[in-house]
Amino acid sequence: MSYQDxxxxxxNHVATITINRPEKRNAxxxxxxxxxxxxxxxxxxxxxxxxxxxxxxxxxxxxSGGDIAWEHASTPAGAHQLARRTTMLAMIIRxxxxxxxxxxxxxxxxxGNELQLLCDLTVxxxxxxxxxxxxxxxxxxxxxxxxxxxxxxGEKRAREVVMLCKQYTAQEALDMDWINRVVPAxxxxxxxxxxxxxxxxxxxxxLRVAKLSLNFxxxxxxxxxxxxxxxxxxxxxxxEFHEGTSAxxxxxxxxxxxxx
Length: 260
Fold this sequence. Notes:
Blueprint: E1 6-11, E2 14-19, H1 30-45, E3 51-56, E4 61-63, H2 68-72, H3 76-95, E5 100-104, E6 107-109, H4 111-118, E7 121-125, E8 129-131, H5 145-153, H6 155-164, E9 167-169, H7 170-175, E10 181-183, H8 188-200, H9 204-214, H10 216-219, H11 222-232, H12 239-249
Parallel strand pairs: 2-3, 3-5, 4-6, 5-7, 6-8, 7-10
Antiparallel strand pairs: 1-2, 8-9
Helix pairs in contact: 1-3, 3-11, 5-6
């Protein structure tokens, strides 16, 4: 398949999927999600591939979440379309049976943080930043953010991350068990390659069973994700939602006071 928003490269039994929108800090739109789904399907179906690496082009961002200009034009119907795509992407990342490593250089915020949460392992550079921005934008990180973060960092800390919309350094994220490993930027590729080599030396079927078994408890959180999608569709397209997206696009603080 020919890709526009991503690149797909295979070498040494590793498939590397790169969100290739550096000018947008690798924010995703409908086309990006469709291509990510297809690329993961391709990697899953390829028996020569043992490990999948997900990353973002450039050194500014792994992924900054949804493209705000695209989301600004969203309606409740558009929110449902987004839900279908992100649901499918999450299902294939978690269900493909092959280890998925998030290679993070730069921002992994909003939907970008949720995307790295869906991966099995995360290696980040020292200058990377993590966080959620939902309420600041008139939205909510119900795409596995509110479900997985409490299991990793604890209930109180997850509330801080989601509600206060702060950003955290890679070292802070590591200390909270949010991610797995932090390395200097010039060692990122070597660190990812090291883990790929280690995983490729393991029994692929044992890794498949281990991944699915490790997912068992959190798979039971799917109803929370699906309910969240339904509820958030009542926010998308409202004046309150557009205040958040307009403020971002206009580079000003949002004023949600009239919606209390």
